[in-house]
Amino acid sequence: MAVLGVGIDVCDLARFEESLERTPRLRARLFTEAEATKPMASLAARFAAKEALAKALGAPQGMEWHDAEVISEASGQPRFELRGTVLEQARKLGVATVHLSLSHDAGIASAMVVLED
């Protein structure tokens, strides 16, 4: 397997929370209904994950936020469920596997994405 893309992103929790409070519709624009119910640290990590995924995919225009949903497995391991515009870009690049790691500590949420063929 070859690495096709890598993306990383960090998100300041306090700043992210202020953004969501200042612009209430932002939560619905960025997150699916299931994601939107998560605690703030998890939301910030999911936002970082979507940003990291966009970077790994080459940051193409026109991708929809809801087309990349972060799902937690029963084990707690996060993974992406891709659809629509994001799935289309991943297929165009030949992506077969998407690895995702999330973390949040000391007021910062972070995510790393690795794409493989």
From TrEMBL:
The keyword ATP-binding does not apply. Its EC number is 2.7.8.7. Mg(2+) binds at residues 9, 51. It catalyses: apo-[ACP] + CoA = holo-[ACP] + adenosine 3',5'-bisphosphate + H(+). Keywords: Cytoplasm, Fatty acid biosynthesis, Fatty acid metabolism, Lipid biosynthesis, Lipid metabolism, Magnesium, Metal-binding, Transferase. It comes from the Bacteria. InterPro entries: 4-PPantetheinyl_Trfase_dom (IPR008278), 4-PPantetheinyl_Trfase_dom_sf (IPR037143), ACPS (IPR002582), Ppantetheine-prot_Trfase_dom (IPR004568). This is Holo-[acyl-carrier-protein] synthase.
